[in-house]
Every structure is written in structure tokens, then in C-alpha cells.
Amino acid sequence: MNKIHFFILYALIIGLAGWFYYSTTTQAQPAREVVIRNEATGQEQRMVVPDFTRVKLFDTPQNLTFAGEPVPLDQQDILERLEREIYVNAYWNSNTILTMKRAGKFFPIIEPILEKHHIPNDFKYVALVESGLMNVVSPAGARGFWQFMESTGKELKLEISNEVDERYHLEKSTEAACEYLKKAYGRFGNWTSVAASYNMGITGLTKRKNEQLMPNYYSLLLNEETSRYVFRILAFKELFENPDIYGYEMDENHFYKMPKLREVTVDDSINDLAKWAVEQNSSYKDLKTYNPWLRSNKLSVKKGRTYTIKLPA
């Protein structure tokens, strides 16, 4: 065999070996499309996953509390209900990551208001479970981070009209939520029941306790939504306080931040908010982004009334 034939054969062997290695190591694994449904919100997400997907099992949290009150994880049904919510949210990666990032923007606003009213810090997770920290509208018509119905919002002194809806005002709606939570605590005397009542109402929870002769939330047989409600809160608390355990490696720079804002006091009506925003060296988009409680393109101001509008500094 001459040298030319030798090198051709050598190159052919090397090429075949490389092709074989590439085809066996990079060949797509069998995959299938699945629909993942977030049981907490009902939202669905389509994903393509390998047939050989491996999942991690998590250790059961130890000494878990809500607002300083212990969760009876020694009871099997309590443990199962908690794990259900942890796995549902820990493995809905995109939603949980975005919720964590969003919390960096809004928790610093909610937390000092809770503290001012002597409400345990864990109640920030109520707003998270209610709305995902977004100004959403429920099928029943509840709105804002704290999901107030119109009648409840007005009872709590929030202004609700065609032009202004303070259910979308984070600070004012959080103040209103604190008033409700304090009232509920005066009725029940424990924070876990207060959290449950935020879902089914003070009257509804009181009725169930009286019917079943059980004062403890964890001992009550409730409807599916309220039965899971507190456990959703607990699951997010666990995920947020121990993200590394569940595979979420979040650094401070990963969280969204609220930009520096300036406040403009308004005591006269504004007929055109877009024009007014430009006059303030801002834009209509920024005006509506940082003041979602403004629900129209104008603002009517009654005599003696003032509004504070936030714009980027």
C-alpha cells in the first residue's frame, strides 16, 4: 500500500469513528410534549421533555411556622398538603423564577406597611398567592395585588370610580389589607386563621369552625380552595426563604428593582393625562406604569382633594 492510499484509508477510518461518536452522543433523546398545569393558578404551560427526565425529591421542611405559629407537620395529611404545594410551585420553574424576581420590586414596599400595622411579615406571601404580585383581575372581579372586590374595597375606604381605582394602588391597598387583617385577628386570635379567612371571609370561616367544633384551621374540613390556601402561602415562604434547596440560585442582582421615583402633588383636575405627563418631562406610559390606579386618560379632582402621582426621577 503506497502512502497516498494509507493516508486516504486513515482519514476514512478517523472520519467514520468521528461520525459514529457524534451520532451516538448527540442523537436526540426520545422526547414528548406535555402540558404542565399550575394547580395553584390553573394556568397551563406546554413543554417538550425527554422521556428520561429525572426529578429531585426534596427533604421535608423542619419546624415550619406561619407568623410564628407552628405547622403540625407530624400529621400525615398536613405534610402531604404542604408537599403538594411545594412540588407544584418548585417545578413550575418559569412562574416561580419570575415571581421571585418580581418580589424584589414590590416586597420592599409591602413589608414596612405590614410592620407599621404590627402585621407579621409572612402576610406578604398572601399578596403573592392572591395575585402573583401583579395587578390582575379575577373572574369574580377582584382586582389588584390584594384582590379586593369593589364592595370590600369601598368598605375599607378605597376610592373606586371610573377614573380612580385604589385597589391598584399598592400602598393604599396594602393599608386596606392591614385593616382587614387586624379585624380578622380580633375575631380569631391567631394568624393562621386570619390568613384562611382572607380567602373565604371572616363569616365563612367562623361558620365552619362553629359547625365542626374545631377552632384550629389545620383541623377543619374546608372547600378545596381554602383547604389549599394556607399551604400555598407556606410553600412560597419555604421556596423564598430557602431557594438553594429547591434549585433556585438567585443573587441580589437577579431581582427586579423599583426605579427612583419622584412625587407630584395634584390638586386640580387634569383633562389630558398624556399631555400632562409630557409637561412633567415624562410619558403617558410611565404615568400609567407607576400609577396603575389611574384608570382613565383624565383625572377629576374635587375641591379640597389631592392626589400624589409618581414619575421616574
From TrEMBL:
Protein family: Belongs to the transglycosylase Slt family.
CDD domains named in the record: MltD-like
InterPro entries registered for this protein in UniProt: Lysozyme-like_dom_sf (IPR023346), Transglycosylase_SLT_dom_1 (IPR008258)
Positions of the Transglycosylase SLT domain: 110-211
Protein name (Swiss-Prot/TrEMBL): Transglycosylase SLT domain-containing protein
